[in-house]
Amino acid sequence: MATSTPHQENLTSSNASYASTFTQGHLALPPAKKYAVLTCMDARIDPAAAFGISLGDAHVIRNAGASARDALRSLIISQQLLGTQEILLVKHTGCGMLTFKDEDAVGLVKKNLGEGGIKAVQQGFREEFLTFPDLENAVRSDVEWLNQNKGIPDGLVVSGWVYEVETGKVRRVI
Fold first, then answer.
1. 58 phi and psi, to 5 degrees?
2. 85 belongs to a structural domain
3. pLDDT of residue 127
4. pLDDT one-digit tens code per residue, 44-100
5. Terminus of the chain with fewer CB atoms < 10 Å: N or C?
6. For binding Zn(2+), which residues are annotated in this chain's numbering (predicted)?
7. 13-17, 67-71, 120-124, 131-135: lowest mean pLDDT where?
């Protein structure tokens, strides 16, 4: 039998408390407000609180650096199968993806996991960790990439934002 970690115990006890008063099981599968938010997986971002998203309102897609390329599969499912009509792409200040380059990450994987780790990276995403050196340019680039991508319908509203982890404020870039 697997041992339980403190994080697993927290998950089950916190969930028991949450489930004891849960009343939202009736919500429909498609998001009620028909939009998707793509943001970073950074633990300092609480998308529901920071962006005013109530349960059932929107899809929230998170990955390292709020990468549009990494999220494309989820964004297509969000629109084509579940009817979203807008994408809000939100990167943030102090993002880890600003602090290293692809080759740095590849080197670290090789050092820590050896050739097997490198093969997994090559099979999964061709050694492209999708880092970026400039935050606002990365926002613009991802929005433009989505607007030009054939998997995203013409005319779909896509906007780009920066969330400031220091202040909790957002500002529009594009």
1. -150, 160
2. yes
3. 84
4. 999 999 999 999 999 999 999 999 999 999 999 999 999 999 999 999 999 999 999
5. N
6. 40, 42, 92, 95
7. 120-124
What CATH code is carried by the domain that includes residue 92?
3.40.1050.10
The yes-or-no verdict on residue 17 having pLDDT over 80 is yes
Q: Is 59 annotated as a binding residue?
A: no
What total of structural domains would you count in the chain?
1
Strand order of the sheet with strand 170-172?
A: 58-63, 35-40, 86-92, 157-163, 170-172
Structural domain includes residue 49: yes
124 in any annotated domain: no
Pairing relation of β-strands 86-92 and 157-163? Answer: parallel
Q: Considering the chain, what percentage of its residues have pLDDT values greater than 90? A: 96
Q: 65 lies in which domain range? A: 28-96+133-172
40 is known to lie in a ligand binding site: yes
pLDDT classification of 13: cutoffs 50, 70, 90: very high
Q: Do the annotations mark residue 92 as ligand-binding?
A: yes
Distance CA 141, CA 168 (A): 23
142 is in an annotated binding site: no
Q: What is the pLDDT of residue 2?
A: 82
